């Protein structure tokens, strides 16, 4: 089931940037402010919260199992405390937490965050990539952040029989389908890159997820090919 | 006489404007005196080898006969090289042509006759300044065995060891540090000299007439005094009378104080100068590099960036006006200077060309005001150097752009973009980030098309990347500066184009090697 709402804890610049970047996908976005002196946000729903364990109201308002929570409080200790208390209350909710550094990142993982975005490391990685491989970084950013005609998407295989037992590495994706398949996530959760040595040993099966780069039209064609239409090979 | 003067002046102008002459002069100056000249270290090494060879031969021949060729090598060849070096140093020390030209212009200006006497005096004075310098005297003494075959003079070969001061920078540093305590050392020497003189005379007076005392002459008294004050005390010459022993007690106590004073002088001289020495070393190292990243400010993001650049074997220099952060950078194994990156003076002191020697200046202070200030400072010095800056508050973006920053990174915006990608395509997001992770086996690499490759592989279809299990993501064409995703087989390859490939790094390495081997094989077959 699609996630229904986004709950952002942290009425600060990070929280607002997150809200701006996910509003194209989610209409139900709420920003939660901890400080009583904080004003509300004009563009998004705003609520106050405290760190005591009273999440019933939240449960009543939102479908928590299908929501995404961002923990973006400025104070690291409060952010970790918030993450751990949300995880104890909502076992299956996706919680994405911001960490200043690797030390906090580890603690947030231990606190139960599904995904941690370490601010310092992420920024430093991007700076270093831009210095080391400027053109690659520019292209990747274009793809990743939808700033170019190219798109990076994930598609699930439903018509594995189309491939007739072929191995991923044997298919000329670019010539046959006009897209590049970068990696495959198998049903058992294992993850492999196309053309890696392991790709020779795994057949394509229904339920595999392909990570694909390509132009919109080619991707749509490819989506139909592996999932929606009968095999036309 | 006037005709001769005119001839001399014309010749001086000819030399001064001759490119060939000036080039040679500059070359020898760089080789002998310029520490930043890249070939000087090889010359210095060569000279040090000659010195050690020379001294080794001297030691060897004390108890053995040496072959004639070794003798010729030591007495003539090495000495001749040193002689040539001496003459070259004398030549480059001052310019005779410039003195003549200056005198000519000066005379013209004042409407006076050209004074040859003044020129001779000035040139003689300039050259004598070099001849009488300590280093030149050592150089001259090192050449002396060349002129004399007398065995006694061979000991002068040892002076060649002192020439090491010229070639080993650390020796010069050592001497310069001690030179800063000149006054203290002079005071110490005076104190020691007075103590030695007074104690020598005293012990002579007390002991010389005592038949059982070994001190019989003033020279022996002097020898005893030196041995005692230096706290060596060989025991071969000792005072026997109670008066003499009393003098000995005083001398021993004075000796301890002389030693303590000397030690403290050395320690304090080096402690005071240690930071300067380290700083000079950093500047010297940086000025020799051609691809340095200068990181301005050493805070959390800067630390991570520096760590990653160092791991990728890049040369990094940290500038920060806060001493604690500089110390922090040094502890992290980085070259760091306590210079304010917002001051023009800091870059002047670095003695580097920002355009040619610096790959990028990274303004990574977590303060927009400071970053704008630093960027403006750098841009005022150099229009071309690449500047990358952190942005902490989006409202200040325009100010950074205005100050000449080429790339701006806003951490909040980046977090927003990462969040956007993650909520949209979590699996794809993880996949692409796995490629970019430093410890991943799967890499995305750039392969630049060289002349060598393009002569033999003209089209994308001939690359055979699929055989190497390498994904060709696209090609960046140098001509159009555009990225072409999944190029068709007929796409032409041109020198300077960049292929973007993804795959296991071993496969990529093999593929790159294949491009070269294939190229050379074809070239070979073509012959």
TrEMBL record, chain A:
Q: Which Pfam families match?
A: TrkA_N
Give me any GO biological process, just one.
potassium ion transport
Residues annotated as domain RCK N-terminal: 6-117
Read off the PANTHER family from this record: POTASSIUM CHANNEL PROTEIN 2-RELATED-RELATED, POTASSIUM CHANNEL PROTEIN YUGO-RELATED
- Would you tell me the protein name for this molecule? Potassium transporter TrkA
Q: Which organism is it from?
A: Sulfurimonas marina
TrEMBL record, chain B:
One GO CC annotation, please?
A: voltage-gated potassium channel complex
Q: What Gene3D superfamilies is this protein classified in?
A: 1.10.287.70, NAD(P)-binding Rossmann-like Domain, Regulator of K+ conductance, C-terminal domain, Voltage-gated potassium channels. Chain C
Q: What is its main location?
A: membrane
Residue ranges spanning the membrane: these are: 44-62, 69-88, 136-162, 183-206, 221-239, 246-270
Please report the stretch or stretches of sequence annotated as the RCK C-terminal domain.
432-517
GO biological process: what's one of them?
Answer: action potential
Q: Specify the RCK N-terminal domain's residue ranges.
A: 290-409
Under the heading SUPFAM superfamilies, the entry gives: NAD(P)-binding Rossmann-fold domains, TrkA C-terminal domain-like, Voltage-gated potassium channels
Sorted alphabetically, which keywords does the UniProt record give? Ion channel, Ion transport, Membrane, Potassium, Potassium channel, Potassium transport, Transmembrane, Transmembrane helix, Transport, Voltage-gated channel
**Is Transmembrane given among the entry's keywords?**
yes
Q: Where is the protein found, in the record's own terms?
A: Membrane
Q: Which InterPro entries match?
A: Ion_trans_dom, NAD(P)-bd_dom_sf, RCK_C, RCK_C_sf, RCK_N, VG_K_chnl, Volt_channel_dom_sf
Instruction: Name the membrane topology term.
Output: Multi-pass membrane protein
What Gene Ontology terms describe what this protein does at the molecular function level? voltage-gated potassium channel activity
What is the designated name of this protein? BK channel
Q: Which organism is it from?
A: Sulfurimonas marina
